[in-house]
Design a protein that fits this description.
Two copies of one chain form a homodimer. Chain A is 56% helix and 11% strand. By secondary structure, the first copy, chain A, is of the alpha+beta class. In chain A, helix 11 packs antiparallel against helix 12 and helix 17 packs antiparallel against helix 18. In chain A, strands 3, 4, 5, 6, 7, 10 and 11 form a seven-stranded mixed sheet that branches. Chain A is globular, with a radius of gyration of 24 Å. Chains A and B meet through helix 11, helix 12, helix 13, helix 14 and helix 15 of A and helix 11, helix 12, helix 13, helix 14 and helix 15 of B.
Chain lengths: 569, 569
Amino acid sequence: MAHYLPRTEDQLFILNQVLRAQEQLQPLAAFGEFDSDLQSQVLEEAARFVGEVVAPLNEAGDRIGCTFADGTVTTPPGFRDAYRAFHEAGWPALACATEDGGQGLPWFLEGVLYEWLSAANHGWTMAPGLLHGAYECLKHHGSDELKQRYLARIASGEWLATMCLTEPHAGSDLGLARTRGTPQADGSWRLDGSKIFISGGEHDLTENIVHLVLARAPDAPAGPKGLSLFLVPKWLDGGVRNGAFCDRIEEKMGLHGSATCAMRFENATGWLIGEAGRGLAAMFVMMNAARLHVALQGLGLLDAAWQKADAYARERRQMRVPGPRDASEAADPIEGHPAMRRILDTQRAWVDGGRVLAYQTALELDIARHHPDAQRRATAASWCALVTPVLKAAFTQQAFLGGSECLQVFGGHGYVREWGIEQHVRDSRVTMIYEGTNEIQAIDLLVRKVLPDAGHAMAAMLDRLRETLDTGRASGRAAADAIDQLQRTTQALCAAPTAQPRLPYEAADDYLRAATLALMAWAWARIDTASSQPRWQAPVAAAFLRVLPELRMRCAIVEQQCAGAEVMA
Amino acid sequence: MAHYLPRTEDQLFILNQVLRAQEQLQPLAAFGEFDSDLQSQVLEEAARFVGEVVAPLNEAGDRIGCTFADGTVTTPPGFRDAYRAFHEAGWPALACATEDGGQGLPWFLEGVLYEWLSAANHGWTMAPGLLHGAYECLKHHGSDELKQRYLARIASGEWLATMCLTEPHAGSDLGLARTRGTPQADGSWRLDGSKIFISGGEHDLTENIVHLVLARAPDAPAGPKGLSLFLVPKWLDGGVRNGAFCDRIEEKMGLHGSATCAMRFENATGWLIGEAGRGLAAMFVMMNAARLHVALQGLGLLDAAWQKADAYARERRQMRVPGPRDASEAADPIEGHPAMRRILDTQRAWVDGGRVLAYQTALELDIARHHPDAQRRATAASWCALVTPVLKAAFTQQAFLGGSECLQVFGGHGYVREWGIEQHVRDSRVTMIYEGTNEIQAIDLLVRKVLPDAGHAMAAMLDRLRETLDTGRASGRAAADAIDQLQRTTQALCAAPTAQPRLPYEAADDYLRAATLALMAWAWARIDTASSQPRWQAPVAAAFLRVLPELRMRCAIVEQQCAGAEVMA
């Protein structure tokens, strides 16, 4: 089974030719020493690490998986050594501030790194996947004393971190959480309760594990406003074992390389992060970045599935293709069969266009933090707020559905473990659920972000996108039409009677899908403008023909609901 | 974990109220004693057997699976006893002719039975799944001597059967098969070669196993016309072990309850079925029924996934629903949330409408065999030829995609094994591949069945469907529109220049999808006409609003290709 191999030239084309990343970051003093040479160097190094160290462990990560015995978790063969090498090479600190021991590089590089890591080995990548979010959370909300003890170690990845949110009865609805935090005389808190679905709640990769735990103070109100965030380490100073225990790990559909732990906090010592009752706010500081992370996982998994399918389709010969053919063989490579070509081209288009959108969003995250112009920081923050839920939902879904299409290229061989393609399908499925289900993303987009300002921010962002299109080209005109269509549907939703409280929730999924396709049309048009090579043109052409038409359908469904039309009436 | 429970009243509504199955079969002398009482009795008995005997074995079938050691396969706990009970109760012979020891009942009852069996335990159901096809194949093509020795035992299920087609380098392209058949002096043949992906190639369920093996005689031409079909038993008369060996079983994504065997035929004794060089024709006699079988598997798996999701959504409370709510609770059952309601209603609509189509197709199979009027037999055969590939592709895809939607209802709990929903997603995936990949189904429909007669048979079938619609109702008008749309697209394809040999292959998948939606619109309209109950109305309304609009999109994509339009030009 061939391992995933990062293809740096694809990233460089998108960053340099399509997005002109260097130009965008040029005004940011924070990255004054960052140039395209350094960018290439970091990406080449990252690609080598991913391809040589992490990718080869993926198959055993699935087959052997994490194992649980007597409260401890053993990670699959090689995972520990790979993590040590990752830590020692400084990868976790890539985008952390230099004053915290980080390398102070733009976050978008970490985005590319994690896309590749996820493509190569989703299970292994879960371990460091929360580090940067925990770092940001602690950096912005932790007390000086907490930061003194934990921040540098989390930045460097010396200790790994978890997010302990979900409880058996409280999933999407964290406000129902019951874990209790009780203040102690010394300023610490005592934590008691049960958490489930805790990725990396226990493992053998690092000496200590730092849990960020959502819990409720004794006098706290019911619901989400009663929740506070606590830092609870596995080991306290002086080698004292804290009361944070793993009771079991889940048997899952996939992602066997990552231990999904049921955690029991029993008389555990912790410290408040930020203000009491503001726990969700402290978590949300890392939410957009974390959701973009998950979108990049989806992109990576889809690219990995595509890479396998593409290689197989070039080798496997079955039947003759319609039209001209090689008479010296009894059958043609299946990549020439239209049904297989369609799968390969459309999934390639999802990856290519998705990278344009995701990397631009990563750049906007850097811009939102570091641009000297407050107005530009605001538009960047608005971009991230609007596009992140779209990317999270769209690319986790596409990882699963497109991964399944790639599996189809293998025929029966895709269903057996041997080729590794079915693992991508199983692994990817969870990304549609965690970090906010895709249905939650749709509600986040429409109900929390588009409707409250009557679609103003969305309209402004789409206007900016339209300005960057070359409408002298058919692709630019098609993308402009797509953006107009989304604008009209947005307006229809904003104008709908507020007497229909269910309407935005009924329409949210179709609206997010429409937004996905309009944004992708923009991305595809940008690629079309940037390169005339078949490598980039063929997927874009397939996307405009076969993928984009869904936009009109989704908009029509939403508008029909807005009109209050009963189709059966 | 709750087991699958057949809901007989759903089937009876569709058979009696929507399709009026009894009236349709009334002219068929073969089923003179078959009436609605007997129908209910058979279905009640079948439901009980499925729910009590087969369904409870599904979880262990996945978790423990089939195991292989020293050339033998051990089936999961309970499988053997359940199969013995199935055989002893006479279920395999339900639709076999009375002169072969069968019960002589209509085939559509077997269709319902196998839908339920697949819903309850896909892995177990693979074992008897090929019996009826093998029975038909042997009955129509076997010599009297072969029939004398094997037919009754296959009819009764005393011995199970396999289809040995695929070879490592010959999947969709069976013409590349290399297994050799060498004639012997006594009229038997010697078989040598390797076959893969042989479901039930080895097991402990029955004393003997009868393999139907596609192989090539020494003087046979290359390609599919050189293939002959042979009957090769595991045990020869007198307890002599034949040279048909299982070398390994595959590690698969799912369907662990069914052993997928790599078979080695080494100096094996077999007998020709039908004429030499006509092996594929002999297999094709069972092809439509086998593909309908697979469509019913998809339907069953989707219904099983829906049943789990529906039960979970009624119990699980998270967040408040928009609009009126129960103030005594902190959260509402998620079935009231629009995003969950959408999933439950649309997937229910796929099952309900799919049953209408699939059961009608099963009835047409009975009519094609037994109706006194040759013209009616011909229209029935035409229905089966056209609709079967549509159903096979549509419902295997929907089992996987809709199963994944049902998994989503569980949130993170859907991704862990505990609830059993992820097993449906894993198990169902293979149905999109076996018995002809879904891409092959699309080619079969368009290239082999619609285009050769310039769309005449398709047009005639759609005309008949249109006549059964109540266009006094919105649903009937919507379905008539859908049928008209498909007609126009069919004509566009038939009128396209033959100078584009790739066009039909480029358009096949979208065309099959358009046909699916037009046929489903007909089915939903029929349901809408037959019942005003919310149980039936809510899914149909959701389908017309959210599912049917895809038809127009697919037709537009096909017509754009017909027009030779380059979207990017």
